[in-house]
Amino acid sequence: MRVRALLLLFGPLVGGCAATTTERLHLPPLQTVAHVDLGRYVGTWYEIASFPQRFQRNCAATTATYTARTDGDIDVLNRCRDRTVDGPERVSHGRARVVDRRTNARLEVSFFRPFWGDYWIIDLDDDYAYAVVGHPGRDYLWILSRTPTLDPAVYERIVARLAAAGYETNRLVRTAQRAATAEITAAPR
């Protein structure tokens, strides 16, 4: 019975799942940014919009805080509020590792080892004011910002680039964010 429950939970991650958007639409391989300075990338990011995922159901005021580790990996602290920006806080701890040291744009993240998922930085502001994280199958997507809001014109340009890259941007859902940032703190070292 325990094996069956594990297969039901993790089976789609390991194989036999439906074709990804990339495969279904016969899209070219997803491209990442040319280079990421991880020293500038670490810190807190606010989720501006994303493709809805089961593990983020009912989340509002979602943030991700990345902290460099001495071993080269990155600690990940995801926070959200349950249902509203004032709801109870939900926290998830994980770890990221760089899989492409040439660009630092392809990482893997794990919240429950031994399972790792692709975390590709596919768009990044020159000043690291926003970032877009995707997956090679184009079924996961997050638009992140260093602030709880993003200029509407900047957001529309990001969405246009995502559509040109083959993302089904009609699936994007905006994330409710609180304007105040006093509650967001860095991840522990």
Provide an overview of this structure.
The structure is a single chain. With 189 residues, the protein is of the alpha+beta class. It has helices at 2-14, 21-24, 38-41, 152-164, and strands at 43-50, 59-68, 74-82, 89-98, 106-112, 115-124, 130-134, 141-145, 173-174. The protein has a single domain, classed as Beta Barrel (Lipocalin). It is 18% helix and 35% strand. β5 (106-112) and β6 form a beta hairpin. The relative contact order is 0.21. Mean pLDDT is 87; it is low at 1-16 and 181-189.
Task: Quickly describe the structure.
This protein has helices spanning 2-14, 21-24, 38-41, 152-164; strands spanning 43-50, 59-68, 74-82, 89-98, 106-112, 115-124, 130-134, 141-145, 173-174. With 189 residues, it is an alpha+beta fold. Residues 1-16 and 181-189 have low confidence and may be disordered.
